[in-house]
């Protein structure tokens, strides 16, 4: 007699809508991409550990960083329930892509939901500052993101949170403008799932280290490359956009190769307007002649630093509209 399947952890997301009938989730393509990315990442970790030249390891790390950008795009799709039409398969793929990031899938779903509900509010205002803000701190935060210091806090924070979720009740955390409204959404059921997924991630990397004899210095160099590549891109689709929870994003124009590496992630405005649409169809959501901003120009614009806030903050949403067409 076969055992009953273990249900995925309960999670009610305001982001998970059924994709349009004419835009079905590309299940087979997504599974193939997830398998190729995972296998490729493991191979590059092994290769980077065993080349003799440090510059060669760095070069492999750059390739690794771009491969993990695709992994993050798949991870993001899973958070929306759009990586596979079967919720159980979607959950499994989300956990796998999350272990490679590494970030617990259960944490990603909650924090990314918070992003969609509070985009461009004061809780997600990194590129702007008020006259009452400490400008030095705001500039340090912003350039810390651009120099790649955002990513390390994700796995570190996940481990700390798994070990001591009571940090949510500390005075420092409650006063934090951004983190309180992201991690503050996490419920007890997610805490248990986060702990399990952190443990699975530790098992994965310990196993890979033992089986492939990975050199941890090389692994850290390769993840440092990813840290810079990922961190510098995290706010490029929102920086200096209008302060609107839905429309506070850009559709950016990128070259075809990077568009596929990012799984059309440069279409961030379309994604915020239609989060139920799988990545494959995002370019179709808006008209072909709709204005787009140069990705490269937008990226370099970030380096001018935070700017004074001239717009009132939008109110956070409680849930997203079923469909947003603008």
Features:
326 residues, mainly alpha, two-stranded parallel ribbon, 14 helices, globular, disordered C terminus
Structure description:
- The structure is a single chain.
- This protein has a domain of 209 residues.
- Helix content is 54%, strand content 2%.
- The strands form two sheets. The protein has a two-stranded parallel ribbon.
- The chain starts with 26 loop residues before the first helix and ends in an 18-residue tail after the last strand.
- The N terminus and C terminus are likely disordered.
How do the strands and helices of this protein lay out in sequence?
Blueprint: H1 27-50, H2 54-79, H3 87-100, H4 105-118, E1 128-129, H5 135-146, H6 153-163, H7 171-175, H8 179-183, H9 188-212, H10 216-231, E2 252-253, H11 256-261, H12 268-273, H13 282-285, E3 293-294, H14 295-301, E4 307-308
Parallel strand pairs: 1-4, 2-3
Overall geometric form = globular
Radius of gyration: 20 Å
Oligomer: single chain
* C-alpha termini separation: 53 Å
As a percent range, the share of helical residues equals 40-55%
How many alpha or pi helices? 14
Rounded average pLDDT: 88
Main β-sheet: number of strands, strand sense, barrel status? Answer: 2 strands, parallel
The beta-strand count equals: 4
Strand line-up of the largest beta sheet: 1-4
Low-confidence stretches: 1-12, 322-326
Measured by DSSP, the beta-strand proportion falls in: under 5%
